Amino acid sequence: MTLVQNFPFFCIILSMFSAIISFLLSGRWAKVVHVAMLIAVFVMSLMTLNVTARSGLSYTYMMGHYPAPWGNEIKIGPIESLMATSFASIMLLSVMGGAWHIKKDIDEKRLNLYFIQLDLMMASLLALIYTNDLFTAYVFIEICTISACGLIMARRTGRVYVSAIRYMVMSLIGSGLFLIGLSLLYAITGQLLMEPARTGLMLDIIKGAYLIPVSVIMILLTVGLGIKSGLYPFHTWIPDAYGYATPASSAILSSLVSKGYIFLLIKLVLRVLPYETAPGRQMDNVLFVFGVTGMMIGSIDAIRERNVRRMISYSSVAQIGYIYMGLGLATDAGITASLFHVISHGLMKSLLFISAAGLIDSSKGRLDRNGLQGAGFRNLVAGIGFTVGSLSMIGMPLLSGFVSKFMFAEAATQAATVKMIIAWIALAISTVLNAVYFMRMVLVIYTPDDSKKTEAGKEGGADFFMEKAATITLSALIIVLGTMSPLVIGILNNGLDKLG
Amino acid sequence: MGTSVFTNYEECASVILFVIGMMNLLLQSNLIKKIIGLDIMDASVYLFLAAKGYIEGRHAPIYTDGITDASYYINPVPSGLVLTGIVVSVSVSALMMALTISLYRQYKTLNLDEIMMKLRKQESEEFIALSNKTEGEGSK
Q1: Average of pLDDT values for A413-422?
Q2: Candidates A161, A164, A371; nearest CB to B106
Q3: Which site in A28, A142, A314, A360 is 20 to 30 Å from A58, CA atoms measured?
Q4: Does residue A178 belong to any structural domain of this protein?
Q5: How does pLDDT run across A421-450, given as a tens digit for each residue?
């Protein structure tokens, strides 16, 4: 065993320890610790990715001294380390981009608590990515929920408490369903590790025993994670939760938290739940229908929305619909497309939230279309960032959003005929709908305004510079991911059978 | 069907409790009742796990009387899961209660529907004020 193989475990433990240390530190030092931790996690995950992607193999890492069916373990492959790398970088850029707002929105005294939430969030996301044990997954789902709630209510004004309580209620129902699902799974297989649990389930199915409980388990686990990631009929909490939190929180919540749950679901689909059996195929169809409906409803809601941040939040509903549609296609290509969209949407949404915050600041805090008129001239970098993000969302070539859509369309050709036609039509309509609200916004911010073209007076030069740097880096990453996609797609394709 | 309900009465009870808890969490408008629903929901899962781990006539999996034979004890894993789950649900309920207190201080009510109504009213007033301001600026 080489040193690099220990790195995923180091990443998890490092982020947990930085949360503990931050209790004793002032806000400024907590931020330094957080950023240092994220850079360390990024570098270590990149090295793990390098090793696993070159060898193309995955390995399990024993946590504690007990071997497989008893002990706890994490499993590391190319896709897991790719996700960890991208999650760490997106979180770093979101925190950098939101630095000015974090300082403005949050009390000096409570600042270290905010970074503790972020540390715990990173730890739980890494654990969700790597874990191979169902109950560990449940525990980290709850940690993720609690820290997400902390991130939402960090701003401490009336509106966010209501958002937080709505988020908590839906999330807790989701985790309750997940918990009872995994208890049932434990009851019929006696296993909590993923692969042994799958073996047990398959044996039961072959024997024809426990057919109804197996379907119930699949429904409970899928619906539980679906609620928590904001799948269409359960999406009502999304605009509230993302629309009013501080921009860094919104960016992290929409681009990482829901994706952590989706990645766990993809792992469960490939590793535990017997999706290739008859009840599994029906589950796929349900996910496909919900995904396609979510793509439409999310975009239509976004068109009707006046508040720009809520509009971006509704677009998350649509984009999560894409991911579930890819899962529902029930082909390897569909799952690869979903995984690619997890990364691509993470970058785009983070960029949109941060650049929208920049535009809003330069328009005296106005969130509606009238107020934002000409904002692209007042804050040039944010305007460019918003335009790049919007074009990528619509699916302009050279940007990562185009590659996602292309992959979904390509995956649809390999699926059953009915699904193929529905997926194509849905993609086409959804692209038009995306264009309606994003292009409208881009046109608004580049409509010349009578008011003076002055930059909003911002104090705190370093943080303001960070915001611009993060916007530019995220835009660049979207272009890089769009133009050099074969590299990432290659890793995803090679790693997919190792994930299962 | 009938006999299996009677042999698995703990599991049946826990599923019924789970549904009661979930419906309370989802549908009650009073925030305290929502939290009670959450606790019922979690407790029902612990009942389910404890019932699954219990084996008739065996003892608690605590090593005190010098017996190392596994067949003397019940299955310890579900007990461990219940303990972990209790810790998780305690922290979640504490967070919900803290949120409830903050909301009560702000809106002087525990009813989520009333809070939402107040919030909508406040938002529409803000929006009207904002558009009036814009019109005023435009006429200048």
Answers
A1: 87
A2: A161
A3: A142
A4: no
A5: 999 999 999 999 999 999 999 998 888 876
Q: Print the domain residue range for A377.
A: 287-491
Q: Are A310 and A276 in contact (CB under 8 A)?
A: no
A333 part of a folded domain: yes
Among B14, B54, B99, the residue to mutate for chain A (most A Cβ within 10 A): B99
ipTM above 0.85?
yes
From A306's Cα to the closest Cα of chain B, the distance in A is: 10
> Which of A142, A164, A173 lies nearest to residue B26, judging by beta carbons?
A173
Nearest Cα of chain A lies from the Cα of B25 at a distance, in angstroms, of: 7
Separation between Cα atoms, residue A410 and residue A403, nearest integer Å: 10
Amino acid symbol at A108: E
Within a domain: residue A214? no
Q: How many angstroms separate the CA atoms of A197 and A10, rounded?
A: 27
Q: Is residue A233 part of a domain?
A: no
* DSSP state for residue A210 in the 8-state scheme: S
Least CB–CB distance from A164: residue in B21, B41, B99: B99
CA-CA distance, A122 to B13, in Å (whole number)?
38
For residue A68, what is the DSSP state?
T
Total number of residues shown for chain A = 500
A80-136 pLDDT, tens digit per residue, is 999 999 999 999 999 999 888 888 888 888 888 999 999 999 999 999 999 999 999
Q: How many domains does chain A have?
A: 1
* C-alpha dist (Å) from residue A411 to A193, A332, A393, A495: 31, 8, 19, 17
Q: Which residues of A touch B26 (CB under 8 A)?
A: 169, 173
Task: Assess if CATH 1.10.287.3510 describes domain B2-108.
Answer: yes
B interface test, pick of A70, A152, A161 with most B CB neighbours within 10 Å? A161
Mean pLDDT of B107-132: 83
* A419-428 residue pLDDT tens: 899 999 999 9
